[in-house]
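Tutorial, part two.
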Amino acid sequence: MKKFKKLREKILLHPMMSFLLLTAFVIVLSGILDLFDASITYNKINLLTGDYDTTLVTVESLLNLSGIKYIFSNTVSNFVSFTPLSMLLISLIGIGIMDKSGFLDTMFFLLTKNVKKTTVTFVFALICILASLTGDLGFVILIPLGALLFKYGKRNPNVGIITAFVSMSLGYGINIMFNNADSAMAEYTQKAARIITNGYAISSFTYLFITLLATIIGASLITYITEKITALKLGKYEEDDEFVQDKDKLTKREIRGLMFAFIGAAIYALIFIYNIIPNAPLGGNLLDYSQARYIDKLFGYESFFYSGFVFIITFLFFILGLLYGLGTKTINNHRDICNYLSHSLDGIGKVIVLIFFASMFISLLKYTNIGMIITAWLANILNNVNFGGIPLLLLILFISMISTLLMPSFINRWAILSGTIVPLMMAAGFSPEFAQLVFSVGSSIAYPLTPAMAYFVIYISYLEKYDKDGIGITKGISYILPYVAVILFMWICLLILWYLVGLPIGIGASATI
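Running the prediction step on this input gives:
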């Protein structure tokens, strides 16, 4: 066993080295493709006119002078502006004071006392799936909290990290209501549909029925895999310098601390809830009224609420930790507050360095346009398809999965593919809503598998933090594969069932025209 462990350590690449090798591969590949003048033309829907625009995409080489200049002049700025980095650091400030003050320990004890492990896992997976409604923001909050939830429950924190990551990633195709990405994609879907049917419109509850069922089944399947495969595979977690204390009941101080925290959090939450109610007197100030759908007013990219959401949640965490600490007297002065705020940032250096290499890989991959060329090439393949029904449904599903691996952005890929997929599926009798759903499902299935996804590095970073032997990218992906296989099978069954039976997929929408 010792020889095998040593051999494994030699073979297992550190994630930093893996991202460096991926970056080198992208640089070399871009140079090779440029030598062959790799380019492709595709038809894209123009959102302003509703007509097709012919678009040419060429490879941008990183081995010529302009490419080398881009690497050296933009690597630092790309790292500084890398969204997961800033969001993670800010959210950890709030999580730190909640953790160090004892709030999380007490809260998790209260929530999990006399509750089965499977129930805790199911509820957590369900919350993570529904959190995908907020877009990418849940990754930087629920992954660290998932680790602490399982750690304080005397379980392996990596199990919580894996559960959080796969639930949110796979949850991108299981939204009972549009998130901001769904809404942005719906604009392309509507324009593509109007080429065939004038005035076609899509509601925010288009997928309510099918996704409501998928949410429950998906959370149940994720729970089963977590308990029967992942938890057994990872085994028990051995504590280092931190010890999770046993307790039978809450003390008077802990109860008082929770009362202080909940009252403060309730007042804070009511203020913000009132400010996201449209047209409320002196309220609704955090919404973007230039948008039509409420989800876009709330979580649109120009929304005040969306742009400040991480800080809003972090400040809520600060209130919970501070008031709990004052109530339990684990916080006695301003120095305690300052020390607790930085608690979760202790030992975060490796995570930051890993994020640096990941940001470099992702930014260079985008610069080369390799992902766009592959996606456009797949769109052109679809133009030559002459079959329909279930084979077409499965083809769209798998093309969505393949294109996600090099171009994770749902919106950017749908901008390329929608002009082909929507008319093609409408000609085969599918509805435009169902076409977008199939694309979203395929994309969400492959979403957690690609290192090109910005928040994949958060997942790997936290696995590294809690695993003494180290976690490589391939090992991190291997934990995800059972979830992907089962959820893929679930969605194939649901999509085919809805198509064959003709059930409505949501309010005012069905699988077929």
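The longest strand covers residues 39-45. In part three we will examine how such features are distributed along the chain.
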